[in-house]
């Protein structure tokens, strides 16, 4: 019986069997990689998504057999290193994902390879450092330290030294740190009456995220202003650590588990109390919606948090459908060039941010393509040029409308896009901030 492409059923995801010793068996990993690479070689739909697939296809085409069996297993890691786990191949391109019998899950095979590499000690100090976002944020945001850190980020001589030692590209525009962290300065208003809608809980808990907490706390403050303006009672998650996405991308799954054990008890308590849990960073939202539930499918608290986790605009637009969102906007936004982050696209929630900006009166140009940065991938010296190359179509499309604002739910992607665009009169603002501006809030 022949096996055709695609399914009439929606894509599904199998749990990640990461505690099985076979998961780390290199020979069995190579066998699965060869199977998946062979399917990819015969299909090649994903060639335009990132550099992982062109790297794979070049290896195949340059081999003695011009098939996957001609590629040396040691070369497989070249493909793995190019993958930054955006998940777009799985969610938007591949016709062989489960429930198709071929059961192709390219990102999770790459994740397995990264985990084997980490377990074998193949991870550099630089990569471990970059993935320790919470620890770096705590250190860099100390009042005595923060000025020196921020000055060094702008110093070309210092950046060249860092590049030569740690291989963090000297030309990458890096976010500054803020000593007035979001969690230390946030003032959520919890005194409003909780009004549940048909689709939405009437009270919200905010999971800050490392980036909002240490780098751009204004995003978090603006989110609190939106909630207060709409009379939605809000609280901060009592205690939090990094969501674990940077460690997941590194393949350090044991560290992911440790972070889960810190975060989930506090989040589960809120979920069970009927709170909608909001995070302003798509990668963090995805971590709780998808990756942790796949890693810990039998953990009831993880599954409870999954059910309670919302993208902010997913929540606000559902609130609008419930008739509980204020729609009196007083300040025109003009033209907004809006980029949809990969980790938001694969949540399968639709373009809720775009819808909210249009509701607020903005003329939105939607760009739905990977910017090429990822969390830490585009920071690394060996991948910087490739990240800029992947982003070129996005830079061009974002610049075309001569927008008043350049915006993305992923603040790091927005910074990357602004760098790639070069000189522009557009302002970079997070969509949450644009909604606060549209409401006329200070």
Keywords:
single chain, 442 residues, alpha/beta, Rossmann fold, 3 domains, 22 helices, 8 strands, 6% strand
Poorly predicted runs are: none
* Biggest beta-sheet profile: 4 strands, parallel
Average per-residue pLDDT, rounded, comes to 94
The shape is globular
Fraction of residues in helix:
40-55%
Secondary structure category: alpha/beta
Number of strands: 8
Distance between the termini: 65 Å
* Order of neighbouring strands in the sheet with most strands: 2-1-3-4
Radius of gyration: 22 Å
Summed up, the domain count is 3
Number of helices: 22
Fraction of residues in β-strands: 5-15%
Give the helices and strands as they follow along the chain: HHHHHHHHHHEHHEHHEHHEHEHHEHEHEH
Structure summarized in a few sentences:
With 442 residues, the chain is of the alpha/beta class.
Structural description of this entry:
- The protein is α/β, with parallel strands linked by helices.
- It folds into 3 domains: 99 residues, no CATH class; 130 residues, no CATH class; 110 residues, Rossmann fold.
- It contains 22 helices and 8 strands.
- The chain has a 4-stranded parallel sheet with strand order 2-1-3-4, with helices on both faces. The protein has a 4-stranded parallel sheet with strand order 6-5-7-8, sandwiched between helices.
- Strand 7, helix 21 and strand 8 form a beta-alpha-beta unit.
- Helix 1 runs antiparallel to helix 5, helix 12 crosses helix 22 and helix 17 crosses helix 19.
């Amino acid at each position: 019986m022949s096996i055709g492409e695609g399914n009439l059923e929606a894509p599904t995801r199998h749990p990640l069997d990461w505690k099985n010793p076979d998961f780390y068996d290199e020979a069995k990993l190579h066998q699965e990689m060869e199977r998946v690479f062979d399917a990819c070689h015969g299909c090649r739909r994903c060639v335009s998504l990132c550099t992982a697939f062109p790297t794979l296809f070049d290896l195949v085409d340059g081999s003695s057999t011009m098939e996957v069996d001609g590629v040396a297993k040691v070369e497989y890691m070249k493909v793995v290193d190019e993958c930054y786990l955006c998940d777009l191949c799985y969610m938007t391109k591949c016709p062989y994902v489960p429930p198709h019998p071929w059961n192709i899950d390219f990102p999770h095979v790459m994740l397995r390879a990264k985990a084997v590499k980490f377990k074998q000690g193949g991870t550099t100090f630089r990569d471990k450092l970059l993935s320790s976002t919470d620890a770096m944020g705590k250190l860099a945001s100390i009042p005595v330290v923060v000025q020196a850190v921020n000055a060094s980020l702008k110093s070309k001589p210092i950046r060249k030294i860092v590049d030569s030692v740690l291989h963090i590209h000297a030309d990458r525009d890096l976010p500054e740190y803020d000593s007035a962290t979001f969690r230390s300065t946030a003032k959520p208003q919890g005194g409003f009456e909780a009004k549940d809608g048909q689709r939405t809980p009437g009270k919200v808990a905010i999971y800050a995220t490392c980036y909002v907490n240490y780098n751009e706390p204004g995003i978090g403050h603006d989110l609190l202003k939106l909630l207060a303006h709409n009379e939605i009672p809000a609280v901060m998650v009592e205690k939090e650590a990094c969501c674990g996405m940077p460690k997941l991308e590194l393949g350090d799954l044991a560290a992911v588990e440790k972070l889960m054990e810190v975060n989930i008890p506090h989040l589960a308590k809120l979920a069970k109390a009927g709170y909608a849990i909001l995070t302003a960073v798509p990668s963090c939202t995805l971590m709780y919606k998808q990756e942790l539930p796949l890693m810990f499918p039998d953990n009831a608290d993880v599954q409870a948090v999954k059910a309670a986790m919302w993208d902010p605009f997913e929540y606000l637009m559902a609130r609008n459908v419930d008739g509980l969102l204020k729609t009196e906007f007083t300040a025109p936004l003009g033209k907004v060039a809006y980029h949809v982050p990969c980790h938001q696209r694969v949540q399968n929630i639709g373009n809720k941010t775009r819808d909210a900006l249009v509701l607020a009166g903005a003329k939105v140009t939607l760009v739905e393509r990977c910017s090429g940065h990822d969390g830490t991938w585009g920071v690394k010296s060996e991948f910087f040029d490739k990240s800029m190359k992947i982003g070129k179509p996005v830079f061009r499309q974002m610049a075309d409308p001569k927008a008043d604002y350049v915006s993305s739910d992923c603040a790091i992607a927005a910074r990357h896009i602004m760098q790639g665009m070069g000189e522009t009169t557009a302002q970079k603002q997070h969509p949450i901030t644009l909604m606060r501006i549209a409401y006329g809030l200070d």
